[in-house]
Fold each of these.
Amino acid sequence: MMNVSSSDENIYVPYSSRPETYIVPVVFAMIFIVGVLGNGTLVLVFIRHRSMRNVPNTYILSLALGDLLVIITCVPFTSTMYTVESWPYGELICKLSEATKDISIGVSVFTLTALSAERYCAIVNPIRRHVSSKPFTLMTAVAIWILAVILATPSATFPYLASEPIPNNNQTIEYCYPFPRSFGEGYAKGMVLFKLLVYYVVPLCIIGCFYFLMAHHLMVSTRNMPGELQHAGQSGQIRARKKVAKMVLSFVIIFMVSFLPYHVFMVWFHFYPYSREVYDDYWHAFRIVGFCLSFINSCVNPVALYFISGVFRKHFNRYLFCCCPFARAGQAAVESTVLQDMNLTHVNSASYRRHNSVVTSHVTLSQT
């Protein structure tokens, strides 16, 4: 949380005269309300409805817990970065907010990577049960949290309260600085590059590979699928898998867009040698947008689920919008759609078993 302000220039603009002083708190208040209600409702749904505890939803629960962590422990404090001139919460909260932010980012991007791998296995090789089993999924989710905590250790250790004198003024401001200055600028550059690669570039490249392979497999399998199976329900099974894959892809795109401006600014600021001299209103606005987007990511996944998934929309309507007429009117239609999907899945499974029996019979006859 570097405090890059106009104090690096000759003219210092007081916080009371800056528009972000009034805009950022409103944005963060919305992030807090939407994030707590949305992610809290997701956690409640998983606790109260056993039918929702499948493999993909276990990862979605992990995402919701990570987002709740950063919203509760970080958002209320970091929202004041652009509204008060000095960090008022002390060094402990400085370290806590930096650490929880990195833990949440790690949990998000590593869980999205695991979800992409799980969807790839479910679509390409659905018979492989051990990869899609609940115990394996729980172990993977726990391992992701442990890895995220380990990688966030520097953020829990090194941040401190730095001070900066205000030009043409006798006051000194304090701000939460994530990199120890005793280590030099090389450490800051190394950490910026490390976070860019580990939390952004490498996971997104892996996710991109999984989705490319998924798309290729779906095109080939649809082309080679016998006509009988296409009309008997096998195509419905593929549609159901595609729907979950599209849901995961929407989470990935949201994450990619949310953190791109943040990483662009950090790389520019730390690697461009004249960044402090040319830091102007454009870069200041760009930094604030990236700062806000990185936290908006923590509240937007439940919103995306509401519009993408009919099953989740039913539960959101039940717990959040139970008093609204449109929610009650649409609930019966959504439940009917869910029942139809369940019946279609049953037909697909029976068709799939019949297809395997026919194939096995043909293979046996050909061998004899």
Amino acid sequence: MNHSPRDSCEFQICDIWQQALGVAEVGVHDDFFEVGGHSLLAIEVVVQIRRRFGVDITAGELLEANTIAKLAEIVRRGHRETPASPLIRLRGGDPDLAPVYGLPPVSGSTVVYVRLMQALGRNRPFWALQSVGLLPGEQPLTSAEEVAADFIVRARAVHPDGKPWHLLGYSMGGVYAYEVAKQLRAAGETVGLVGLLDTRPTIEAGADNDFALQALVERALKIEVDLDMVRSLDPEARAELLLKEAVAAGTLPADFDSDRLLRMVDMYQINLDAGSAYDPSGYPGDVTLYRVLDRAVESVALPYDLDWTARVGRLEIRDVPGHHYSMIEPGNVETLAALVDAALPD
């Protein structure tokens, strides 16, 4: 079967991929993340497509339209037929298998689930929710209950009839997965795996007022700046400085705009506030906690169950290698994926 570009549009997107990925050849049906793509390269590809074709495509759409052939269809249309959905299909997979849904962590991004999705066996369908508010024109949801209810409405449109709901949440995303499970169970739905990826049930309000900014700077942008100085700037000046430093460090492409960066900063704080206000009262069902073995990055000592046992009907704990941030990276995510696979019955 011929996987070469079939027209000028596919040829140009193929060229963009080859430049971003540093490869000599790529097929129009190759999956972006299976041929070496990752979140930062996804942003670069989006920037190049916008520049070359003048089409407003998002990184979320690249996650869903993850081949050259699918991207070319969007570019040929020249516009979105419908507004981009925050519920993104990372993998179509085997329709006979119940999907897995990943709920957004504090960053609001779906990219944390890409490597886990790739490592899961049996070609299982995988959807991930991006926090509402990351895209222009979206009004952020400010409570865990709102996020869960909104997700359920969106997911019902794609969830296969009669299949159980399998939910995963990395870090604070586990709080959202837990609340989704509560609402689905209350509605009489069959809830399968509720997997919390090193999630704590509570976040102390005001424990670290700089956490959102620090997390963005150190973990997402990976730059070294004086946080006190950055905090003293007004939002626009702060975004311009962070954008300049991130571009210089190579963690953001040169065409990434400050408005998007401002929304990233805001989303960290919105999700943190939602987590700190949430009351994780009892869920009568089963919950699985995937707990990292390396606790070195924790600022305080935590109980082995991270305070979940008394809040759920039955808690299972599965130890996974790595620390909180490396558990989803290559070398560790394979073990995590194998444990998740073993917990999915169908």
